[in-house]
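This section describes the prediction task in plain terms. A model, or a person checking by hand, is given the sequence of a single protein chain and must write out its three-dimensional structure as a string of tokens. No templates, partner chains or ligands are provided. The sample shown here is typical of the held-out split.
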Amino acid sequence: MSLAHAPEIVSVWTDGDRPARLVWRGIRYLVTDDPEPLVQDVVHDALTHPGTRVVGWRFQATSVVDGDARVFDVHQVAGTRWQLTAVFV
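The expected answer:
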């Protein structure tokens, strides 16, 4: 079940290009699985085959406060800003 009804701005730290931790509603979560890229097709007249680009990530993360585990969907917007688009319990 998804809990996020409207996109929220969150803080995301990465290791390489992959999310490693985030802060959502004042609580720090550590990524506890292998993040899955969320991709979007890239269509261009010069391409013979459609390409894809990573537009976000889906990952499980666990709260450092109480051990609460959730699955998050985040999309990068405006450079270093991240938008939370879905939370699953």
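For orientation: The mean pLDDT is 89.
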